[in-house]
Amino acid sequence: MPAPIRLRELIRTIRTARTQAEEREMIQKECAAIRSSFREEDNTYRCRNVAKLLYMHMLGYPAHFGQLECLKLIASQKFTDKRIGYLGAMLLLDERQDVHLLMTNCIKNDLNHSTQYVQGLALCTLGCMGSSEMCRDLAGEVEKLLKTSNSYLRKKVTLCAVHVIRKVPELMEMFLPATKNLLSEKNHGVLHTSVVLLTEMCERSPDMLSHFRKLVPQLVRILKNLIMSGYSPEHDVSGISDPFLQVRILRLLRILGRSDDDSSEAMNDILAQVATNTETSKNVGNAILYETVLTIMDIKSESGLRVLAINILGRFLLNNDKNIRYVALTSLLKTVQTDHNAVQRHRSTIVDCLKDLDVSIKRRAMELSFALVNGNNIRGMMKELLYFLDSCDPEFKADCASGVFLAAEKYAPSKRWHIDTIMRVLTTAGSYVRDDSVPNLIQLITNSVEMHAYTVQRLYKALLDDISQQPLVQVSSWCIGEYGDLLVSGQCEEEEPIQVTEDEVLDVLEGLLVSNLSTPVTRGYALTAIMKLSTRFSSVNRIKKVVSIYGSSIDVELQQRAVEYNALFKKYDHMRPALLERMPIMEKTATNGPTEIVQTNGETEPSVLDTKHPPPVTQPANQVRANDLLDLLGGNDVVPVIQTTLPTKPASAGGELLDLLGDLSLTGIPPMTAYNKNGLKIEFTFERANPNPNIAVITIHASNSTEADMTDFVFQAAVPKVSRHSLELILKCLIMKHSRVNSLFNQNCATVF
Amino acid sequence: MNKIRFILIQNRAGKTRLAKWYMQFDDDEKQKLIEEVHAVVTVRDAKHTNFVESDEVFRNFKIIYRRYAGLYFCICVDVTDNNLAYLEGIHNFVEVLNEYFHNVCELDLVFNFYKVYTVVDEMFLAGEIRETSQTKVLKQLLMLQSLE
């Protein structure tokens, strides 16, 4: 059998292949040759063959048949064999094949080899792909080697130990004795790897962490020497001595100083020193500064230092290098909650970043901008943010629009400004606005009573321009339906009232019904709006006609509505005015976006529920039930049930028609009976707390329907650990006969809703 | 866990010139990662940062990369790691390669792939930076070469 071709030859040959198929053919031919060569157990050329196999593996071809050959190479005495063998092991073998365990013995021998380079190979392999079993078996050897004075080996062994700890955390204790004098090394490389080992141990175990806290002064000293000492050519990068070591020490200091006052105090000075003395002209210096900032923000540093850190970040924002700007924005985002005022100072720079070219920078700048909006800067910020909304990529528009709505709600300086802002968002990014903002906006509009005329006028004009953006169209049609009378009477005070007739308005609404651009939901809005106008406009006949046409619409939803409205005209005309009268002010449940008003039947508009005056807070149905219960008992209500403005349901006959929709409550969770035995009944009802919508208030109604008093009533609640709760009232009490006791139980919203 | 998950050297066409994995991945996972990295990194140009942090693509890690001529050097690290420091790490590594191969070019990496792995192993181990002094690394590399 002729000698297998050399590696170089093979590579050259493969590179001449012009198509994938040609390459595949060459590779298969070579693999076949290699396979037969392996079968012959030829020691001389094994190394060459495996090397070729590895090359082919790197191109993406299967090479598993070479695994055992790698092991044979590792066991050989020649360095070149070992080297390729270990490389092959690292590339072809991994934990999931049992074959890899066969390496363990070889590695063990090699760890004790006389040549440091062989030891190095073994350490490297163990450190890169050693499985847990291998690590367990060889941990002892590694620990022994940790004591070596050979710095070349020390570096490798230390990191190998790190790997062992990662794979088998229980063995960490074993390495503790060897760490005694880790930091007294002079050799930078060894010091570096030692710091990495210490970091790993401290991160994994709080005991180790407290144990190593005493090293803080030493670390501070080392760092100081690094900064102060002059030029050290070996580890110098652009004039800074061993920046990698500096960064690692800073990180270790961070872990040690976190939540420990004394340590944090001890490192205050050095951090300030690094922060002020490091060269910032190149990336290297900035890398160190960045790590310093991260450390300052994480430990218990004094406020002066924190401000220094944030100012560094602010300076980063002005840097030409976008990497640095990016990194600064990311950090500022993390600290904006805790150091709000300090970050505010850099607001204008942050807002400038909205115009950056890089997408990830823009996104972070946007998030940060929203976090910085407050009552004082709302006008200026909103201008910038709206401009951003106009010009940004579609992927941002939805988030930006929601952010704008939220900010506007919280800090709007005036109602008119608020409405204008909403209009601006709807007209520029109308199609990206989230679906649930439509009900929010509607609710907002109803609440600004004095702005109704202005709002409807502006919305009408917007509709004339463009009917493609569905959220805009939906809000507009709802408003026109509600306030159409204001529109035609030209009552607007805020701006020049426009002249529009009833027919023109109906034209527009009918146009929505027939347009291809309107979604079914939009059509629903439009139809209902037309119907509502029947009590506000005089051209009732026209409306009747439209409604009856849609009685046979293919769209089931439209058809149902039209049929019901028809019925209103025909059979219940006397009730029509009452049913379609102006909506009252709706109370808001929460100020946060998406989880607000629960959709009912997938339809968000409340128009058909007009007469129900849906209370955003609690349980109309349950309230009725509770009252009935009391009536049965004929007893005294000791403590009135919590809450509020709950006007009674109209008991009028119109109720039957709408009864299908009658018991749709707008809360997330229906009340439930937890216990009902022997005359003791316990019910839970759920609502959102008024001041803080993230708290759910669970009210426990306990009632006693027996003839006797119940004494020593103890109520205990078991909740899963994840929820934090506070029991407001002590629940031990005396329940009088025929009475009810209620107590509050606050629970964090996340787990309930 | 702050560490490097893998180091990749790819050319613009997507051919892998070096793939060093410090974490367990299946073969198909490895292939997928290589393709994802290639897709993400080749569409970026000078106006983008050198960091790719995208929750949809890379769950809780990020890619620090830099382009040198026709090659992309990518390091995949934890999201909590210091981007700028790893960028320096890449540059350090490239300078060593340059020195070792005397003005390195892509073909050097192709024909001497096993030597490139040796360089990686001298500078990184167990997913951490091991030796940062270029002079020391070069000295070791020459020693190793003399053993062949």
From TrEMBL, chain A:
<dbReference type="InterPro" id="IPR050840">
    <property type="entry name" value="Adaptor_Complx_Large_Subunit"/>
</dbReference>
<dbReference type="InterPro" id="IPR016024">
    <property type="entry name" value="ARM-type_fold"/>
</dbReference>
<dbReference type="InterPro" id="IPR013041">
    <property type="entry name" value="Clathrin_app_Ig-like_sf"/>
</dbReference>
<dbReference type="Pfam" id="PF01602">
    <property type="entry name" value="Adaptin_N"/>
</dbReference>
<dbReference type="GO" id="GO:0006886">
    <property type="term" value="P:intracellular protein transport"/>
</dbReference>
<keyword id="KW-0333">Golgi apparatus</keyword>
<dbReference type="GO" id="GO:0016192">
    <property type="term" value="P:vesicle-mediated transport"/>
</dbReference>
<dbReference type="InterPro" id="IPR011989">
    <property type="entry name" value="ARM-like"/>
</dbReference>
<dbReference type="Pfam" id="PF02883">
    <property type="entry name" value="Alpha_adaptinC2"/>
</dbReference>
<dbReference type="InterPro" id="IPR008153">
    <property type="entry name" value="GAE_dom"/>
</dbReference>
<keyword id="KW-0653">Protein transport</keyword>
<dbReference type="InterPro" id="IPR017107">
    <property type="entry name" value="AP1_complex_gsu"/>
</dbReference>
<keyword id="KW-0813">Transport</keyword>
<feature type="domain" description="GAE">
    <location>
        <begin position="667"/>
        <end position="753"/>
    </location>
</feature>
<keyword id="KW-0472">Membrane</keyword>
<keyword id="KW-0968">Cytoplasmic vesicle</keyword>
<comment type="similarity">
    <text>Belongs to the adaptor complexes large subunit family.</text>
</comment>
<dbReference type="InterPro" id="IPR002553">
    <property type="entry name" value="Clathrin/coatomer_adapt-like_N"/>
</dbReference>
<protein>
    <recommendedName>
        <fullName>AP-1 complex subunit gamma</fullName>
    </recommendedName>
</protein>
<dbReference type="InterPro" id="IPR008152">
    <property type="entry name" value="Clathrin_a/b/g-adaptin_app_Ig"/>
</dbReference>
<dbReference type="GO" id="GO:0030121">
    <property type="term" value="C:AP-1 adaptor complex"/>
</dbReference>
Automatic annotation (TrEMBL), chain B:
<dbReference type="InterPro" id="IPR000804">
    <property type="entry name" value="Clathrin_sm-chain_CS"/>
</dbReference>
<dbReference type="InterPro" id="IPR022775">
    <property type="entry name" value="AP_mu_sigma_su"/>
</dbReference>
<comment type="subunit">
    <text>Adaptor protein complex 2 (AP-2) is a heterotetramer composed of two large adaptins (alpha-type subunit AP2A1 or AP2A2 and beta-type subunit AP2B1), a medium adaptin (mu-type subunit AP2M1) and a small adaptin (sigma-type subunit AP2S1). Interacts with CCDC32; the interaction is direct and mediates association of CCDC32 with adaptor protein complex 2 (AP-2).</text>
</comment>
<dbReference type="Pfam" id="PF01217">
    <property type="entry name" value="Clat_adaptor_s"/>
</dbReference>
<keyword id="KW-0472">Membrane</keyword>
<dbReference type="GO" id="GO:0072583">
    <property type="term" value="P:clathrin-dependent endocytosis"/>
</dbReference>
<dbReference type="GO" id="GO:0006886">
    <property type="term" value="P:intracellular protein transport"/>
</dbReference>
<keyword id="KW-1003">Cell membrane</keyword>
<dbReference type="InterPro" id="IPR016635">
    <property type="entry name" value="AP_complex_ssu"/>
</dbReference>
<dbReference type="GO" id="GO:0035615">
    <property type="term" value="F:clathrin adaptor activity"/>
</dbReference>
<dbReference type="InterPro" id="IPR027156">
    <property type="entry name" value="APS2"/>
</dbReference>
<keyword id="KW-0254">Endocytosis</keyword>
<dbReference type="GO" id="GO:0030122">
    <property type="term" value="C:AP-2 adaptor complex"/>
</dbReference>
<keyword id="KW-0168">Coated pit</keyword>
<feature type="domain" description="AP complex mu/sigma subunit">
    <location>
        <begin position="4"/>
        <end position="147"/>
    </location>
</feature>
<keyword id="KW-0653">Protein transport</keyword>
<protein>
    <recommendedName>
        <fullName>AP complex subunit sigma</fullName>
    </recommendedName>
</protein>
<keyword id="KW-0813">Transport</keyword>
<comment type="similarity">
    <text>Belongs to the adaptor complexes small subunit family.</text>
</comment>
<dbReference type="InterPro" id="IPR011012">
    <property type="entry name" value="Longin-like_dom_sf"/>
</dbReference>
